[in-house]
């Protein structure tokens, strides 16, 4: 679908001498033209001759140069002379050296692609193979009758004589007589042609067999060994060239009725061909030549009046560029040269694939540069057909992709011009479908589109092909021929240099822009052309502007009327014609002129976030927005209404929103991972973008083999859907989503408020019952703009902020709208809205169906009958579930209606229903609820049946644990309520919930049971309240108090135990002892002095005080020793692991290293995690976790276990501080000041040790710092770590995935609080 676009062409002044050959030096950018025994050195920068060297002082016609090759290594030009001399021209010294002579003369000389070997075809029909030092390796004869080493072996299978041919296939007289091959044409000079394969391993030779006089191909290896010979081919001519990719060898064959280009394989077999559009015998192919990337075949033809008339004045030259795609050969360009300037020689550039060098017989040098480009309507007008035009010599193949996709080489229609087409452009926005076709004779054909379909049918130059036309009527609009317009200069003289017109652009209905090279001034000009439609039909140059540099591309944005020009140096200029023709630099936001980092063959403009930017792509796959590179692997791009779309070498298509700020656009790397969003799409390997259809979601790709693929990417689809929803065009949006399987929840999620406010519009537009049902059925609670289509999240202000279920809200709103719009029509949709709710309202749906059955009008007004509604409901809901719901309505008519359409046996459900009808109404409902296992409703109905059913209610309540609902069924003062409370309490007691059991016993007046339960849950206050209600005697109270005090001491509630002993047991001594045992010194002293028991100070308190001091001191010292030991061990363990990590980065081979570092990093695959946890209970998993972090030296997670222990020791410091403070105060009271001071100092040392160790235990920079190497890291992890190291000077790995114990919050406050200290102890 691409055409060759001439991006620039330049010429040099004529040398006015006969040119024989030339060589190209890309290092010095020089051309060496051999003409009239001289070497002219032409500079490609100035296009002028900079030097001239004589080959011979006296011009001799026998000493003609037949070939020239620039040798890169020696920086010299090797020249082969017809008389046999091989010359070497040294470019630096400007000296000519004769390095050898072939006495018989030289017919042809070619160098291998690596310039290591040279081939010489001599006049004695030999081929001489030489090294680059011109030493002869071997000499072989071309006139051998051998086939070669690769001669096919005939094993005798499938002989023609042994096959059955029938009567029609019997051999006739003369069939077995072998016909002699046709000799070469009379005008064939018999010169051999040599050509190397691209890798230099083989070469081919086209020679005339001296025995038969016919031409044939022979193939030799690099060593000069004959490999194969071509099959006999009548009419084979001399041109020959081996495709650089190596699979085909091109030659030509003249047949009586056609002229073919043949393709041979290396084994000599004819593989394929195509026919040249040449119909007379006066035209012949002079030369075939493949370009560097093997895609273009240049064919040089010459036309003479008579084959015997070979005077140069009568020769006309043509160069055709042929391209094969999808097994069809296209003629993409044709360059014609008059007889006075016919071509002397040509060659493709050895570095730039699409650069062609030509020298004419009169001494003029021409250089052409092409690039591939797609010619299509680039505007975004509403009537844009998105037509693509493909050039095929004199035919223009056109397909409007907005209406159809026709795969090449076919097309919707074609325009037959009768002359070769070199360029095509489409009109501006107002006439975007019109065509301007540049023909080979410099004329421009204009075709316009007519609104009358039949009017264009009379144009004979336009013919339907892939769009119909063979007896079928088509609605496709075809262009109408407007006329052929000639180009004229400002002075009225015609412009005849057709091959020099470049970049024709249609900027307004009657105005064009083009670039042309003036070979007289050796300059580039920008032409402003104006179309005059009169009897002369002219396109006249109204104005022209001299360009300071060679133009590379001219681009027009018809949407913004912007015209830009890019020079070969990468600078971008903007064209204006307000006060004459002007080119001003394209300015960036910083007012700097735009200079692209590299020249780009593909360039356009687009509006991004209210500013117009330049988008460019070059042959090195760099994609730029202004001067910012956003991708380094872009193979093609196009601009859609809202996206910049580009394909990549990683076989993806990416979409960049034009609403983005170009300065903040991210860069897409080559090896970047593919995100799962709508802005990236996988495509077939090697596919390139053809175009994005304007105003549509269609994106066209062309595969490497040539076929087309039309896709509808998610990005374009969602953009179209959002745009339609913003315009409240719900039907178009829904049909688009339905066609392309986009979740319909976006109808609501895109803008919930707009959807709810226009719910009636939505219903009326959708209209179709099936479509509404599909929408309701597809509802889900999630916001799809935040989960499925996240690349362009809806505005936060538009999202649904209200509480409640999204599905319920939509179902209720749609049902209300359906009811108001047309209830009878949308009955099925209303049923769907009931069923789809989060808690399906099937009962309401059944009631609706029952109302239809009861209504007599429903059958006569065309609405849905109740049978159809019920049948539809049975599709949505399982029949058994629906039967149960119908039974739960207690309406037997509905039950029968559903049961009749189910698979249930009437013998089963009819007796059951009849039995239910006989029961009392409430008991019938109870039986139904119990059958449906709706036990809460069942006990409600059972409670209404009377007291005689209370036992049955209790049985159901206890069986189904329905205590709480049962409590609501009876008054608080009723016996039933008390019984339920007692049963509830017994149940709670059985599950060891004594507190709530006691409360239930108290509510049910079961005080003794309540007292026992309160005692078991240690609620001694309520226990004594229950004892008071029971009026228990004093002795039992004392026993109860002693029992409660003993239980409280077991749970270390010494204060509560002392209160019970004092107030209820009246045992002061035991209360004081209890407080002393609990180290509650102040409370113990309070009781001692209140009850005058000072004797217990000496007997109990002081002894316990000294014991507590000794125990606390020993405990603190032990904790300090443990903390130091654990801290030191932690540092050692970390040092060892850090050393192993560094050794891993240095490449040390340690068999246990990876297993240990894997444990350190904690990385593991999901499968390994699942395999370890499969089949384990929570208890066993906790046990495994405890074993995992062991303090045993050398265990994998010893460091984590040490951190956990140290963290726990820090957390217990708070409690220790309070105990020590209380102990210190009491010690001072009893004159043990020194002991108190020692205790304070010991605790202070402990706290200081912890404070000093915090940074060691929890380093600020992370636990481990290491390079990420090992089996659990990929190359991306290693690369990221290296980048981080270069940026920060340190390879800081993340702390890893393990749950390291964090620093306790208490360490940030308590450790720095000194209020616990006593001043008297300092």
Description of the structure:
The chain has 35 helices and 56 strands. With 1322 residues, the protein is an alpha+beta fold. The strands form 13 sheets. Strands 33-34-35-37-41-40-39-38 form an eight-stranded mixed β-sheet, with no helix packed on it. The longest helix is centred in the C-terminal third of the chain and has 51 residues, at 1095-1145. The two termini are 94 Å apart.
Low-confidence stretches: 1147-1175, 1266-1276, 1283-1297
**Structural category:** alpha+beta
Bin the helical content.
25-40%
The strands making up the biggest β-sheet line up spatially as 33-34-35-37-41-40-39-38
Task: Please provide the count of β strands.
Answer: 56
Mean pLDDT metric: 84
Q: Mind telling me the C-alpha Rg?
A: 49 Å
Output the keywords.
5-stranded antiparallel sheet, 8-stranded mixed sheet, alpha+beta, elongated, 1322 residues
